[in-house]
Design a protein that fits this description.
4 helices; four-stranded antiparallel beta sheet; Ribosomal Protein S5, domain 2; acetylation; exosome; five-stranded mixed beta sheet; elongated; alpha+beta; ExoRNase_PH_dom2_sf; single chain; cytoplasm
Length: 238
Amino acid sequence: GHTDILVGVKAEMGTPKLEKPDEGYLEFPVDCSANATPEFEGRGGEELGTEIANTLYRVFSSESSVDLKSLCINPREHCWVLYVDVLLLECGGNLFDAISIAVKAALFNTRIPKVRVLEDEEGSKEIELSDDPYDCIRLNVDDVPCIVTLSKIGYRHVVDATLQEEACSLASLLISVTSKGALTSMKKVGKGSLDPESIFEMMETGKRVGKSLHIALQKILDEEESLGTSRQKVGFLG
């Protein structure tokens, strides 16, 4: 619909977390543009931004989604921190699904420069960044899940709801699904209730839709990749 989202990934060198000394980590700063919808005037977008960020943290909390060990440079000392910046430009319904697709596409496109840790005779360590822009590592995004939102309207449920359909729905189920159809997390939103039978039915629909979503996304990403530098630039960053 009219949902417009921009996602960029920025890599910075940081220190690994104490509880995971041999892993890098991801951060999800979310910014909701005041122009996206009149509701975001003033501080209106902050609450939604926090909800989106918390949902992304939850989706990526699964250890299998991204190999965080590949982001470690030097255990306990240096690692890559990936800031996945989400900018919400326009709201036209089905936000979480669109954001998860954009995040997976941005991570697929991320290239992190290779670094070497050099140690001198005194034992002090120095980090050397590769000069070659093509000498880089890429993340494996095969297991990165996409979110499928199922909005319950009456006795049925819909996927990819428009703003009008969302207004008719009292309860929605957000499920994150991998490309193999595995369900990694689930969250209910809205004030209404869901009966167990509806939840089971929505989960089955979500898995089916999620698998086809991954296939379609991967096909487009591979097509773009094959074009290389001849790819047509689209949008205001083109």
